[in-house]
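Teaching note: in complex prediction, the entire set of molecules is handled at once rather than each chain in isolation. The prompt given to students was simply: 'Predict the structure of this complex.' The entities are:
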Amino acid sequence: MVAVGSKCRTCKAPAIIDLPRHNAHFCAEHFLELCRRQVVKAIEKFDMLRADDKVLVAVSGGKDSLAVWDLLVELGYQADGLYIGLGIGEYSATSAEYARAFAQERGLKLIEVKLREEYGYDVPTAARATKRVPCSACGISKRHLFDSEALKGGYTVLVTGHNLDDEAAVLFGNTLRWDVEYLARQLPVLPARDGFPKKVKPLVRLTERETAAWCIVRGIDYLVDECPMAVGNKHLAYKAALNEIEQESPGAKANFYLGFLDNMAPLLAGRSAAAVDGLRSCSVCGAPTTGEVCTFCRLVEKSAAHDPVPVEVLLRKGRIR
Amino acid sequence: MVAVGSKCRTCKAPAIIDLPRHNAHFCAEHFLELCRRQVVKAIEKFDMLRADDKVLVAVSGGKDSLAVWDLLVELGYQADGLYIGLGIGEYSATSAEYARAFAQERGLKLIEVKLREEYGYDVPTAARATKRVPCSACGISKRHLFDSEALKGGYTVLVTGHNLDDEAAVLFGNTLRWDVEYLARQLPVLPARDGFPKKVKPLVRLTERETAAWCIVRGIDYLVDECPMAVGNKHLAYKAALNEIEQESPGAKANFYLGFLDNMAPLLAGRSAAAVDGLRSCSVCGAPTTGEVCTFCRLVEKSAAHDPVPVEVLLRKGRIR
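The expected output is the structure of the full assembly:
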């Protein structure tokens, strides 16, 4: 990670990490300080959080969500966790253990929602039932439950652990298609609207290498594996393409994402509002929707009626992608 | 290039090329037809050329510029060629031969301008004299001479051979930086303005693989080598990144560039005009410029005063990049 003999930019102690984008090395202490500073900068610039917010952090058991929960608690925010049991076999079982262990060790509150127990389906079964990629059913489920659990628990803000690599890759995908509607919505803060909580992404100024290093330095155990169902999806291809660019030109990835927020997002303001006008309440669950029944309730109806499909079957059959 | 036994989409004859982006194979005849159709489509959609235009084609001796010249003559346009002798050693000597041979065999008029003979410098020397990358001096020289030769010869349009890969790579670079001013200017047609001729890029709907195949099928000899001074520049890295995306998702590159023209360019219209207002005439050559002396004349002054630097010296010293 760092050449022997490298010194921390701040204190000249032996460095533990090099950050080519900042053209500098850091010791453990000053690396953590840099991470905190980047998170505070994101929170302040985009008006993400106030001191009296009641925060719900969406937690997967991976590095990003545990890092953001850790950072927010350390910064003094009152933040509980929300874990969604997606039923993706061993992957979900292990990820839940990491999330629980993190919460228990720190005396934090973790809300758990299990798709199979509470809604009668899981992501692999939903993928088979809807004949779509698993990431589609997974996204619909998480978005809905993040919203409904935040509102149910009286939380004022929902936090996700999306990092700079995530946001840059999504931006790259939307840019390759010049999907103006999606581009206009790609902001690190979505304000609260009728039936939707405020949603924020405090890690947008940190790369995934940095959030991993945060966890390692802070002694946080996290699930390293990527979701087995995501392997080969386009999001990962976009990340790889941007990483090659970053390799050649350190800082290019941050300039791409943060430059978008500074230079382009203001020009697109208002172009994402179209879909919001015709919202009404889902006749099943009451969530805001453009149709009679919301996407989540339609997914539940279809998937819960289907025989359970273990993730191994889906992976073995090569039905994914 | 194509699997044995593949058939032309149009006539079912044995195919000579597969075009994954069109999800089809073509025989020689119908491949040429497809290329002509794409060029006509670009010309018509962007109002590039009229039947009575007097066209000057910027010719490098490479596949793109010879293909576009060939295509325009074949489509019935009155088109002469312009070759700039950049003085990049053997590379320039060979490229000139290809350009001359093409013109001679077809009885076409080729105007030649040699930087060393007419302006007392060449690109390698200019790179050394200005202490900048050679691509910078090369671009300044070509842009200026394209404009001035077009106006001098009474041409109504200047054509360049930029293909889809070129334009997509430049767009990618401008997008990585969200350079709104440059993005707003990235159109396949720049209208004539005081002192600038109209400039058009009829090949924007053809990839470089397609322009190479055009030349091969049409029996056009062209210089295959990339310019030795461009090796390792960012433009080539952007092309490589887009090619990987294209490999995964055929058509992604065309969607990226053509989708930009359809969806984003209209939103940026007018944002590139800022720099045009304060133009006056260069006190040396009379070309439009924002300063007292234009960039080209400043380059000439600096470079012509410098001892000639052979390209081999520049390449050997690893001073490039």
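Point out the following to students. The longest strand of chain B covers residues 78-85. The first helix of chain B runs from residue 28 to 45.
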